[in-house]
Design goal:
Shape: globular
Structural class: alpha+beta
Number of domains: 2
Order of helices and strands: HEHEEEEEHEEEHEEEHE
Strand content: 35-45%
Distance between the termini: 21 Å
Helix content: 25-40%
Length: 240
């Protein structure tokens, strides 16, 4: 499990979490996805009207700058919109934010966020089932065998040494998801949790791009680490 940390304050992180000022998505270069796929040994990368992908695979990837803001201290936050067109033609839509001294640094920070928490799950689930960077786990859901692709748990906090150990909670995430009445379709889940002064600051779980009150309540009631210093957790999961 990889853990990413950042020297960010709670107010700024929550602002990132809840979104920057909205603007219409603007088409951006496909270089980010092309470079990433080629770096993972893909030689048959294609680019078309739907985005970036691999030849003979219908999955497509694209991103755009969704919103940005310059703060009074001169720093920037940027929110990127990532879209993944799946083989069944549904879309995973994820808004990921980052911060930096320049807009480009903020965009790059958001891309790192996406890579660490989400991209390997998508790559293993829809593009390369043999990706060695990501594992799959077998679960039973509604009496049927399913495959769970649980990404790395990303934790950000105020200081580099204050991020709590999230590894024990990963088993609880699996238990919660295994108990849900999922349909036979592929599903994707994103968990966002923030804690400050040993209290829940924010907790949201989305299922297939939509907020899930049931999953949110279950995750909120987990035994999250109690500590005075702020921390935020992001977890992305695919159930096949």
């Amino acid at each position: 499990m990889r853990v990413a940390t950042a020297l960010l304050y709670p107010a700024l992180l929550l602002a990132i979490l809840l979104g920057c000022s909205r603007s219409s998505p603007t088409p951006k270069s496909n270089e980010f996805f092309v470079t990433w796929l080629q770096g993972h040994g893909e030689s048959n990368v294609v680019v078309d009207a739907h985005g970036v992908g691999i030849a003979e695979n219908p999955t497509r990837l694209r991103w755009s700058l969704y919103g940005s803001e310059q703060h009074t201290n001169g720093s920037f936050t940027a929110e990127l919109e990532f879209r993944v067109l799946m083989p069944d033609r549904r879309e995973i839509i994820e808004y990921v934010a980052g911060s930096g001294d320049t807009l480009k640094q903020a965009e790059d920070d958001a891309k790192v966020n996406f890579i660490v928490s989400t991209f390997h799950v998508i790559y293993r689930s829809f593009l390369n089932p043999n990706d060695p960077h990501q594992t799959e786990q077998k679960i039973t859901n509604n009496g049927q065998p399913r495959v769970l692709v649980l990404g790395d748990t990303m934790t950000r906090s105020q200081t580099t040494n204050s991020s709590p150990n999230m590894f024990p909670l990963r088993d609880r995430f699996r238990e919660i998801l295994a108990s849900q009445p999922f349909s036979p379709q592929t599903h994707w889940i994103k968990i966002i949790y923030a804690n400050h002064h040993s209290n829940v600051m924010h907790c949201t779980v989305t299922l297939d791009n939509e907020g899930s009150p049931t999953l949110t309540d279950a995750v909120k009631n987990l035994p999250w680490p109690k500590q005075q210093e702020f921390y935020m957790v992001k977890q992305f999961v695919v159930v096949k």
